[in-house]
Amino acid sequence: MGVGKIVLWTVLILVALVQIFPLVWLVDFSLGSSTEMFTNGILIIPQKIRWDNYLTAFVDGNVAHYLFNSFFINSLAVILVIVISVMASFACSRMKWKLSSLVMTILLLGMMIPIHATLLPNYKIYNTLGLTDTLWALLIPYVAFSLPQGMFLMTGFLSSIPRELEEAAVMDGCGIYRIVFQIIFPMLKPSIATVSIMTFLNNWNEFIMASTYLSSPKWKTLPFSVLEFTGEYSSNYAVQFAVMALTAAPAVLVYIILNKHITKGVAMGAVKG
At what angle do helices 63-93 and 100-108 cross, to 10 degrees? Predict the structure, then answer.
């Protein structure tokens, strides 16, 4: 192995350690007691490993209920983003109409707007329409801010599909919806997988909008479990770290298992676009 490769691997290992350290720190503090956290060291060595922190977090933190809400809301967001982005990308890149380029540009401009920049305007609108503390209060912004990225990737893949397939389908008597969902949709599987994973990961840990728009426990998502152990004068920090570890676990597992699909999909979309 040459000197260049040794330097490269050393740099990559250091970067990996820096990236993974917050997870190690999170798990380490979740296995100790609240009093052990007030030490001078970056990490602690618990006198007794407190697995009961996770049991307390799961039971008293309403994790099961909030976890269901998170999966339900994120699943709906993923489905809506996939369906709308496929249809919108097809309409703007394949169908001929005067404002197609303008509409595509306006939709893609959404990638430049941070989701939390619309926090107060959205709250004013939702409050006027009576949508606060409902499923739609989270679903609408989650879909709206994931859609531009989905359209960007879908358009890149669509440009690689021969138009002759659609022309042949029209000659065979296929309607527009049959062309999109029976011919185009199956050919977009790599980009669909990528958009699904990225939409799920982007919205999974979102908390600021959820805490602004929701007040009752009915639709609260998993990050709210941390607040269950926050008191007026003191907090159970060890259990809070356990809650944060439980909250991060699904996203970490999804990323580890499906990382190759994310990388492959983004790379293919960039090349084909």
Answer: 150
